């Protein structure tokens, strides 16, 4: 039974969504502000968190920033329909996905399941070694999918599940272009729709993390209007 943390200052959302998730077989922990959630997470980390952005005491952005210092646990943001800037900023900070309010609870459940499946696959649970799971070396880049481990020039890089999958897809075939649609297929299930901006935001966040390790990192190239490619250095 996967443990899901739901953090929102709207008690109606906490009640209705937690009932839906529990009916789907999840263990749900609810918090009505970011600070209470952070204190609980420091004692026991959930397997996935669904965070509202605007909350008292500590908002979702601040909570995500604290979480990314210690974990790559999948995070989904709940945003209002006018919060486009917050959505992009959240993705750049390391959120894996976002759902706009008002939202379909069925859609939220499907996105949670998709991220957890990805997390399980990367953890290597009952997975044979294949081209997608064996250790991949591309120049200075080393990726171990079964351990969700990334090294660049011998230094560890902490990536979210989505960032890992995008980097893996690009690095598997250096020099070949991956369109945004192809990268969407890699990072999201068919039933989950995202737009081009979501992929772009993940790539920007991925580049930033690599450049924090090596400020000369330039292996991921943007081909405007086409997509991205990985150039082996």
Structure description:
The chain has helices at residues 11-23, 34-43, 60-68, 84-93, 105-123, 161-171, 180-187, 196-213; strands at 3-7, 27-31, 48-52, 75-80, 97-101, 136-138, 141-144, 149-152, 155-156, 177-179, 220-223, 227-230. The chain is α/β, with parallel strands linked by helices and 233 residues long. It has a five-stranded parallel sheet with strand order 2-1-3-4-5, sandwiched between helices. It has a four-stranded antiparallel sheet with strand order 6-7-8-9, with helices on one face. Strands 10-12-11 form a three-stranded antiparallel sheet. Strand 1 (3-7), helix 1 and strand 2 (27-31) form a beta-alpha-beta unit. Helix 4 (84-93) packs parallel to helix 8 (196-213) and helix 6 packs across helix 8. The radius of gyration is 18 Å and the shape is globular. It starts with a strand and ends with a strand.
Concise synopsis of the structure shown:
This protein has 233 residues and is an alpha/beta fold. It is built from 8 helices and 12 strands. It has helices at residues 11-23, 34-43, 60-68, 84-93, 105-123, 161-171, 180-187, 196-213, and strands spanning 3-7, 27-31, 48-52, 75-80, 97-101, 136-138, 141-144, 149-152, 155-156, 177-179, 220-223, 227-230.
